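Input:
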Amino acid sequence: MRKNIVAGNWKMNLTLQEGIALAKDVNSRVSAISPKCEIVLGTPFTHITEVVKTVDAPKISVAAQNCANKVSGAYTGEVSAAMVKSTGAQYVILGHSERRAYYGETSETLKEKTDLALANGLLPIFCIGEVLEEREAGKHFDVVKQQIKEALFHLSAEAFGKIVLAYEPVWAIGTGKTASAAQAQEMHAVIRGLLKEQYGAEVADNCTILYGGSCNAGNAKELFSNPDVDGGLIGGASLKAEDFLAIISAF
Ligand code: 13P
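Output:
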């Protein structure tokens, strides 16, 4: 059975002290309930070690928001998958649309990052999603399928089993414009169909596919009630414990 996950992506927000305070708050609130999903805190690199030390509720783990596409060496400013792993993080968010758009990440570099993440025992939360013009041109299914094929279909079925996918339509990120539950379900079903063609029914059924893009306490329940929507990747609403907990409680 695939797992449900609610993952926060803090992006480039919160100082170390603010991040620790938020992690503490989320941790104590989660400890007080029995969440029906796994919870992941996607923090800046600088915060990971302290956040890992701060959280001890059974279902919480920590993610980096990126890792390098090189093993080690003279790559000033980069952080390797091995370094991320050594902090105690279990997950790494890869291929976020902001990284694709602002830092020129391509399927080729994402393929390398995915391989290094897996080789170092990290679980990738791999993001895909179309921009508005692509949806309006009716190309959204093809765009998303292509992103998955190019960066991930070199993986064996066993390796692919470690991937969490996050469908994040770019037009819904930070805009307050959520995909409707029907739009999310439609895309997630197409993605699962593609995985079935490539890897068979078992791998497809076991793959957790998250929705991201203006997901909040008000719409999470409807989104998560769809058969192929297994949770959310949450930006803005993950920055306040109360909002994030309300989304976790939507399961
Ligand atoms: P928002 O929830 O702020 O729209 O961000 C979504 C996102 O990009 C998560 O990775």
